[in-house]
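Researcher: Next sequence.
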Amino acid sequence: MSSNVTRRSFFKGAGLAAMGALTAGTLSGCGQGYAAATPANPSAGDFGGPSWLGAPPVIDEADIAETIDTEVLVVGMGTGGIPAMISAAENGARVLGIDRQGTPHNVREDIGAIDSRLQQASFDEFPEFRIEKKEAVEDIVRYANGFVNYDLVKLWADESGAMVDWLTDIIQRDGKLVMEFEGGVGDTSDPGRDKAFATGHSPQKTDAVAEDEEWGFAESILAYAAEQGAETRWYCEFIKCETDDAGRVTGVIARDVQGDRHYLRINASKGVILSTGGYGNNLEMMEDRQAWNQKIRIAAPGSGGNPTGSGIKAALWLGATMDPLGAACTFNRACVKPDQYAGDGVLGRWFWFGEQPFLKLNLKGERFCNESGPYDYMLHSTIMQPHQTYVDIWDANHAAQAEAFDEVGCCRLFPFPNGAKNNIPMQVVDGMIEKLIEDGYVQKADTMEELAEKLNLPVETTVASWKHYNEMAAAGEDTDYYKEKHRLMAIDTPPFYGVRTGAWFLATLDGVTIDTNMHPCDENGDPIEGLYLTGNDSGGFFSVSYPNLLTGLACGRTMTFGRRAGMLAATGQA
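Model: Next structure:
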């Protein structure tokens, strides 16, 4: 059975982005049950970087048992890699894609773009969906506190609509899939602190393949790549890039991960495109780059691409630079039992309902922030709280209240205003909650006092916080943290529910410095020729927080830049 991640399960994976500044130092342990060992040599390798970087491996020529020649090589056949393969093949290049896995994993299906045909067709009926590019660009810069390359953000804004139109034509070529525009920006009559932009697009199955679990978005675009002449090689692990005397990348050394595990040289006369993912599953890199996010991280079972930073390190070995700050896309969609705290090393469960802006309390039973906003704003506030863990509380009216919240993007539980499908329906979420109750994660009680006891919260403080919240809801104003009126609703109908919550980790966001031609750049800002980066390996686009209110932005950025990298490598324009 195919292990393609469908739109309805894309959030079970982990992978996105890249890394940050080269800073050496001792790694500190955090979380429950995990402590990173102090590296024996915190400045390993010729480049004087931290221990996780090391030096490029030396492979004996006698151990290279196979040589392959191609024109454009794409390393990593995922969200950025497959569009790069298609684009390079459409532009006349002989293309090979390699991947250490056996099927495409984590091909994202919420695709952010501006000015697609589907968007433009909605404006007459839904004028609120129209996006001013300048405003969107400035909002992305604001989320990143300015730690971005403005030109990369503008590039996405200018080219993403055409990219989605291109993908739409590809997936609709055989009648099996259709692209939908996720038209929704929330309740504009009661706007909150943060603006939502209707940027999301998602492929959906038609009746022709509705019952076919083997077919989906990844299979469709990969099949199209093959139709254009692109070749694939699975179970082929990337080791490092190779260069000529002038420093131009000429190909890679890889290794077959099945059979005799022999090394092979792949020569790529026109260019190598790296799209290998971030470093979220490299604990040493995570502890060095962003230990704070490890404190709120809960290990929730699910499928993932296991990104370890291989492409990032390969670019750094060639002299590339990277973003100054470590950052990640974290969702408040993971939970632990009432006697546990968040923190990497704790095995918890996936808690999809966590994004809904219900009452949230710290472990002292106190409300501590506005529950409504970007995914990680609340989680960043949680880092400031005891044990970096908080509690979600809701009641028997939760389904009606979730609909009234009018959420956007992948956490929406009801169809979008323009009729587009949402990710997971409320009925399925209720089934998930029941399973979490059965397994001892979500607690259920007839009184708030009983619920507080079950969650190991101070009863008196918890009840006082709950009553105060309901009083503000009755008055129609959040005088504490200013949540929108339509998301400030009383929790007063038993049974009551609660669960301890932390971060489900989607991806690292910091990456290798690139220019608008997708080349990694050295400390002088000069490109490393013959090499292109896209998606999770590249930087300059995100920092500090992920702008999830521009739905599908990370996927849209990755696919837009993957398409561009394929074209540039194939044509030699840059």
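Model: The first strand starts at residue 64 and ends at 75. Confidence is low (pLDDT under 50) at residues 1-39, 41-47.
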